[in-house]
Amino acid sequence: MNLYTAAMADNNPQSVIETFIERIGLSIEADGLPRIAGRMMGFFVIHGGPVSFAEIAERLQVSRGSVSTNARLLAGLGVIERVSLPGDRQDYYQLCEQPYVRLIEGHIQRQQAMEVLVRDVRKKIPAALKPTRARLNELHGFHKTTVQQLQILVKKLENQS
Q1: CB of 24 within 8 A of CB of 7?
Q2: What is residue 127's three-state secondary structure?
Q3: Which of 15, 18, 29, 50 could connect to 92 by a Cys-Cys bridge, CB 3.0–4.6 Å?
């Protein structure tokens, strides 16, 4: 029995939440981002916010520096946003509206930039380099199709809300 199965069988809500947060961390890490960023994302999916750096650090048992670094990363990806509370000088973070749509929109922008790069390079490659041009055509098609399909996905997700 693995950690996830054990937590689900235990039927202890706190154990299930902790396991969920940890599994999101591992999943995000497998995608090349820091595990703490993934754990923070899982935390915000469960708790929403607003939550202070100190509370995040305490609840996830990580340093405030790690929280700060990964909060900037997640904010840059459009997952969380910094907010303030009246009469409080601390910064708080909360899950953004439609964070998953915002994640995909960021990916679309990066794919579009790659599509332009490949298109521009392809134009400058001499026709005599047919194999190179063929590979660039394939890469350009990949980015173009990816953008088109992600745009369709964004529309579907926006209509779900």
Answers
A1: no
A2: coil
A3: 50
Which amino acid is located at 128 in the chain? Answer: A
pTM (two decimals): 0.81
Calpha distance 75→115 (Å, rounded): 25
Number of C-beta neighbours around residue 96 at 10 A: 19
Euclidean distance between CA atoms 121 and 128, whole angstroms: 15
- CA-nearest of 111, 88, 51 to 74 is 51
Could you tell me which of 104, 91, 30 has the C-alpha nearest to residue 57? 91
User: Is the C-alpha dihedral spanning 64, 70, 35, 15 positive or negative?
Assistant: positive
Measured between alpha carbons, how far is residue 100 from residues 37, 60, 112, 144 in Å? 15, 22, 18, 21
- β-bridge partners, 144: none
Residue 52's SS3 state is: strand
Read off the pLDDT of each residue in 111-127 and give the average, rounded to a whole number. 94
